[in-house]
């Protein structure tokens, strides 16, 4: 490899979509011939294609994989990918996640590639699996190595949601002016993640995101093109377009934006979606007991899904669900609103024109305050206190939102509402305050506008409360999707996990989590392939989860998916099979796996 020009002529797209805009050339070292091959990675998409056509290897793929990815010192072939990170002119050698190449061969392979390339000592070796990370930690790899965060931080662009949009380009400096109030016909450029995402045509953001962040989930839910470009704010070509009508096109490989004469698509009239809450149930629901026929209309989706998880827990071993779980049905929220005459305040709020954002924000704030400051039914508090005091193991409890306006077909609702904590017999963290805070969050500004965007009738929305013991000793927390988001050819899971209680879906600026995908090449019983995209910035690059914990997550989550989809049909909550969005925790010194929440993943 004598020049960058030669590399670019041979380069193709990596097989995995975990990074955007990385060029990659496949490499084969033939031990028999003592030759290193850099080959056209568009013409030959897979290593096997090249080895079969050029090196005359067998066309039996299983045989090829057996001899090409093992740990034997007598391997005939060494396979890898040479990745180019354009921003800082970095070159990184990567093995397939399934490759068990031993330490001696890794170092030999690295030296061969470095020796036969023009950049030589600038080559790095990519630690993309738990096995390789451990080899480095044990001091066995004596070559320059980088972790996934090196790859992640050295890319400047990231495709988050593909699509096309026409709108007026506007820049909003949210770091100085955090209140975001664009018009619906705008394509916005923002320099940090907003708490509330108003109706817009498209988004360019200067912060990289995880695929499971709330911003990405909202964009997917709305089918809004979303792209991260760390340098967009200072690009003269984009700045010159500000205030003009532009067309934004986001693809898997990048984005384009240019001035256009195309029309901005008008808002299409859509019928209001009127939900059907059931206010007839007037007792606390024990989630360990059998559910009524339409539970989401009584206690909300979140509480209903936890109750279904408890059914699955009896059928699938290997995980726990939060203990002492109960739900306060919609009846008590409705009763609180009516007894305190807050329904009139809601009526007045809904008379305000939806584009009067400041007036609506003020009215929502007043309504939330009124809900929290008005008297709550004392018998409800006494009943909850009595139920939770029947056990002596836990004193700290989580009170979580559970509405009928989330987890709907085409409407995810992630991150719209609030959860609060309460401690038994604590004068400050009271059960009363926790319930009132959760009820009030039905009228969060972000929730109001998301429902408005999807034409959901606010008057038909109701808030239940999910209660379960809290987790004071979290060793790790995470979110997984029962789909391989980066190599959709293979069934698998995509995992975001963070150390302790640090948030995965709304991280602090600059904080990264462990992010990886897992699959078995669609072969039952095959060894799992674990491929990291980023590592936690608060865990010193060490893998948060152990291999056996990742395997447990993989097998358990796919079984949960199968059972939950069956139960959703039984309880009239979903009419087709859906991948799952699962929240999990590892709790205590024994690192017990708890599945905290499950919902449909809408892509």
Low-confidence stretches: none
Average pLDDT for all residues: 91
Oligomeric description of these chains: single chain
Q: Specify the helix fraction band.
A: 25-40%
SS field, number of helical segments: 17
Gap from first CA to last CA: 41 Å
Structural class: alpha+beta
Rg, please? 26 Å
Residue share in β-strands: 15-25%
- Described by the principal axes of the CA atoms, the overall outline is globular
- In the sheet with the most strands, the strands line up as 7-11-10-9-8-12-13
Brief synopsis:
By secondary structure, the protein is an alpha+beta fold.
3D structure, described in words:
- With 603 residues, this protein is α+β, with helices and mostly antiparallel strands.
- It has a 7-stranded mixed sheet with strand order 7-11-10-9-8-12-13. It has a 6-stranded mixed sheet with strand order 2-1-3-4-5-6, sandwiched between helices. A 6-stranded antiparallel sheet has the order 22-21-20-19-23-24.
- Helix 10 (301-315) crosses helix 17, helix 12 (342-349) packs antiparallel against helix 13 and helix 13 packs antiparallel against helix 15.
- The two termini are 41 Å apart.
- The mean pLDDT is 91.
